[in-house]
Amino acid sequence: MFYISESMIRLLFFWGGLFFFLLLEVLISYRVSSVSKVKRWINNISLTLFNSILINLIFSAAIVSTATYVEKNQLGILNLVQAPLWIEILFTVAFMDFMLYIWHLLNHVVPFLWRFHRVHHTDLNMDVSTATRFHIGELAISAVIKISLIFFLGANLPGVLIFECGVVFCAQFHHSSLKVPKWFESIFWILFVPPSMHRIHHSVIIRERDSNYGTIFSLWDRISGTLITRVDQAKIRIGVGAYPNPDRLNLQHLLIMPFTRPVR
Ligand SMILES: [Zn+2]
To answer: Are 124 and 202 in contact (CB under 8 A)?
Structure first.
C-alpha cells in the first residue's frame, strides 16, 4: 500500500518540479538556446518516458520493499544503534548522497560506465529536461547499487523517500537554465550544488567535466578536491566534443550510443 503512495509522491515531485522549473526557465532564462528547445525536449522527455515505463516502476517497488524489509527485520548499520529518527534520516540522506557522488565519479573514470553516462552529457544545452536524460543501462546499474546500499545501511522509508525527492529536486534545479541571483548562489554554494557549479560539469572541456560531481551537497567535491569554481560561465560550451551535431542526437541515437565507438 505504501508503495503506491511512495511512487505517487515521487511522480508528483518529478512532474511538479519539471513544470515549475520549465516555467521559471522561460520567464527568467539564463541564456538563449543554441539548438531547438522543442527538439531537445522531445528527445529528453521520450527517453524519460521510455525509462519510467520500463524501469522506474519496477525499481521504485524494489527500493520501497527493501527499506520496509530491513526496517521490519532490524537489518543494516542504522539498526545497530538507537538514534532519533531525524538523525537517522539526516545520516541516510548524507550517506546516500556521498555514495551517489562516488558513483557519479566512477561513471566518468571507468570507460565502460562512461559509455552509458555520456548519453546524459551529450545534451547540447542544459535545462530541467536534462536532469532525467539518462540511458536505461545506467539507471539499471545504479538502481541495483542503490538497493544494495539501502540494505547495507538499514535505511528507513522516510529517509529513503526524502533522499529520493531531494535528488529529483536538486538535479532539476542545478540542470535548469535558470537565472539565479549571484547572492543566492554564493550562499547556496556553501552547502549545496547551484546551477553554475553543475554547468561546469557539463562543459566540453574534459578537465572541467571531470569535476563537480555532487548532486545534493557540494561538500563531497570540496573535501575530495574535485571542486572547480573559477570558470567564466558565459564561455562554457555544453556537451561532449565528439557529438556536436544535434541531428545525430535523436532518441534512437541515444539508445544505441553506449554500444557504439568509445569517445572521451
Ligand atoms: Zn556526469
So the answer is: no
pLDDT given for residue 3 in this prediction: 54
Q: How far is the CA of 81 from the centre of ligand 1 (A)?
A: 35
Q: What is the pLDDT of residues 71-120, one digit of tens each?
A: 888 898 888 888 899 999 999 999 999 999 999 999 999 999 999 999 99
C-alpha cell belonging to residue 61: 517497488
Residue 118 CA, ligand 1 centroid: distance in Å: 8
Handedness of CA 170, 176, 178, 181 (dihedral sign): positive
CA dihedral 199, 200, 205, 206 (to 10 degrees): -110
Of 23-32, 138-147, 160-169, 238-247, the poorest mean pLDDT is in 23-32
Q: Which residue has the cell 567564466?
A: 232
Over residues 158-169, the pLDDT tens digits come to 999 899 899 999
How many Cβ atoms sit within 10 Å of the Cβ of residue 111? 9
Query: Residue 166 and residue 96: Cα distance in Å, rounded?
Result: 11
Question: In residues, how long is the chain?
Answer: 264
Say how far apart CA 200 and CA 216 lie, in whole Å: 16
Distance 192 CA to ligand 1 centre (A): 17
User: How many Å lie between the centroid of ligand 1 and the Cα of residue 210?
Assistant: 8
pTM, two decimal places: 0.88
- Rounded Cα distance, 2 and 190, in Å: 35
